[in-house]
Amino acid sequence: xxxxxxxxxxxxxxxxxxxxxxxxxxxxxxxxxxxxxxxxxxxxxxxxxxxxxxxxxxxxxxxxxxxxxxxxxxxxxxxxxxxxxxxxxxxxxxxxxxxxxxxxxxxxxxxxxxxxxxxxxxxxxxxxxxxxxxxxxxxxxxxxxxxxxxxxxxxxxxxxxxxxxxxxxxxxxxxxxxxxxxxxxxxxxxxxxxxxxxxxxxxxxxxxxxxxxxxxxxxxxxxxx
Length: 225
Ligand SMILES: C[S@@+](CC[C@H](N)C(=O)[O-])C[C@H]1O[C@@H](n2cnc3c(N)ncnc32)[C@H](O)[C@@H]1O
What we know:
Layout: H1 3-11, E1 17-21, H2 27-34, E2 40-45, H3 48-60, E3 67-71, E4 85-91, H4 93-102, E5 112-117, H5 121-130, E6 133-143, E7 146-155, H6 165-170, H7 182-202, H8 211-220
Parallel strand pairs: 1-2, 1-4, 2-3, 4-5
Antiparallel strand pairs: 5-7, 6-7
Helix pairs in contact: 1-2, 4-5, 7-8
Bound molecules: S-adenosylmethionine.
S-adenosylmethionine binds at residues 21-24, 44-47, 50, 73-74, 89-91, 95, 99.
């Protein structure tokens, strides 16, 4: 099982109906059903081929009777299935936010979300804060030499304020609880921002609007400005 999916599996409380949105290979629901960490699983993909792949893996693993495979765009059409936990992994933060926005009317308070954005986590964090989700944990996972972010959130249904740009970009957890890979995650972000700032300077473009994010990363890393 890939480390970033194992990180979701180990955080899932026992029992409950699990939904893997954009499952593709089906590895996560397969594992959860085999380990009896999920009672049932709803397994979706927007494309027929990846969904067929998941279906095959679940059948080969002997758990097809507890899995419902659904060809669906996001979660908007998944209401009425008693879903307790959602994983939405391996997509951009923007796509994940769009899936949550379009599925908003099917959600109910207490449902838990395990979100693994590949990019645009600022957009996702902003969506979660504004649209009634409480972020409960963020962690960084390393898989095949690459770092991945996992955001765990609970839907409360109570809308909140948009985070400031620094919080949207970096979250509120990793600076306090960096875990094994948090520091490396901030270092990669810092290097990316430094490269972008240098390119902008070389091209004679306007001031870099991410300076405050870069300054905060340096503070977290305890570096001189
Ligand atoms: C990179 S794969 C990730 C697979 C798996 N979740 C993982 O993290 O290893 C992304 C999958 O999401 C599916 N996908 C993309 N947008 C989707 C959407 N709006 N609704 C459902 N599935 C979607 C794609 O077809 C693809 O199979």
